Amino acid sequence: MEVVPLDSADEVAALAADTIEAAVRAQPGTVLGLATGSTPLATYQELIRRHRAGGGPSYDDVRCFTLDEYVGLPPGHPESYRATIARELTDPLGIAAERVHGPDPAEADLPSAGERYEAELRAAGGVDLQLLGIGSDGHLAFNEPGSSLGSLTRIKTLTDRTRRDNARFFGSVDDVPRHVLTQGLGTILRARHLLLLATGAGKAEALAAAVEGPVSASCPASVLQLHPHVSVLVDPPAASGLG
Ligand code: F6R
C-alpha cells in the first residue's frame, strides 16, 4: 500500500484525476470503478474541467461500475447513486448511460441482483481502477463494520452513524434509506488498482485504523492491506492520525 500525503484536498483531486486519466489513456475499453459521496466530487469536477478544456482523454469506450446503490428510493430519485453519478460525472464526460452499470435495487429478487452484478463485473473483465472513499466508521463501499472480508455484492443494512452522515444529501436522517446493495469487500479486492481518497479531519481515525491497524472486520477498509496495488491519497487533516 502506497500512502501519498498531499498538501490539500485540491492536490488530492488533481492527483486522482491524473491517475484516472492515465488509466483511461493506457488501454482502450478501460473499466472504471466509481464511488459516490462527497469525497470524489472535487476529482470529478477536475476531470470535467479538463475534458471541457479539451485536454482530457476520450471517454467514448470507457465502461463504469458503481460501488453501491440505495434500496427503496423511487426510480430516478436525485440521490440514487445511478442519478448522482450520471449528474456528477458520466453525463458531463459524455459516457453513454448504457456504459454505466450499478447494482439494480429494482430487481424483484434482491439477492439475485447481487449475483447479477457480480456476473456483469466478471463479463466486463473486472475493474481496472477502482476509486474509493472511506466512511467515518471505516466502511468501504457500504460494507459496514462486521462485514465479511470475502463478501460479494449483496444487501446490507446501514448503521445509524452512516445514515446520520448521509442525512446531508436527503434533508433528514429519516429519509435516508436503511438498506443498500453494495459490492462486497471481496468484490472490491478483485479490482486491479484501488485508489482510496481521504480528505478532512472526520476521516483521520478511520484512515489510521485502515492503514495502520490490524486487518479486521471491525474496520472494513483495513482489508485494503491485503491488496497488492493500493494508492491512498490524503490531505493533512485526514493524515493527522497516521504515525
Ligand atoms: C459511496 C461509498 C461510501 C463513501 C463513504 C464516504 O459510493 O461507497 O463508502 O465512499 O461513505 O463518503 P463521503 O465521501 O461522502 O465522506
How would you describe this protein?
By secondary structure, the protein is of the alpha/beta class. It has one domain (2-135, 147-235): 3-Layer(aba) Sandwich (Rossmann fold). The protein is built from 8 helices and 10 strands. It has helices at residues 9-26, 41-52, 81-90, 110-123, 160-170, 185-189, 204-212, 236-239, and strands at 2-5, 31-34, 63-66, 68-71, 100-101, 129-132, 154-157, 179-182, 193-198, 230-234. The strands form 2 sheets. Strands 1-10-9-6-2-3-5 form a 7-stranded parallel beta sheet, sandwiched between helices. Helix 1 packs across helix 2. The protein is globular, with a radius of gyration of 17 Å.
Chemical compounds bound to the protein: fructose -6-phosphate
**How large is the share of residues in beta strands?**
15-25%
> By helix and strand content, what is the structural category?
alpha/beta
Residue stretches low in confidence (pLDDT < 50, at least 5 long) are: none
Tally of strands: 10
Largest beta sheet: strand ordering: 1-10-9-6-2-3-5
Major sheet details: 7 strands, parallel
CATH level 1 class label = Alpha Beta
Shape: globular
CATH topology: Rossmann fold
First and last CA, distance:
15 Å
- Number of separate helices: 8
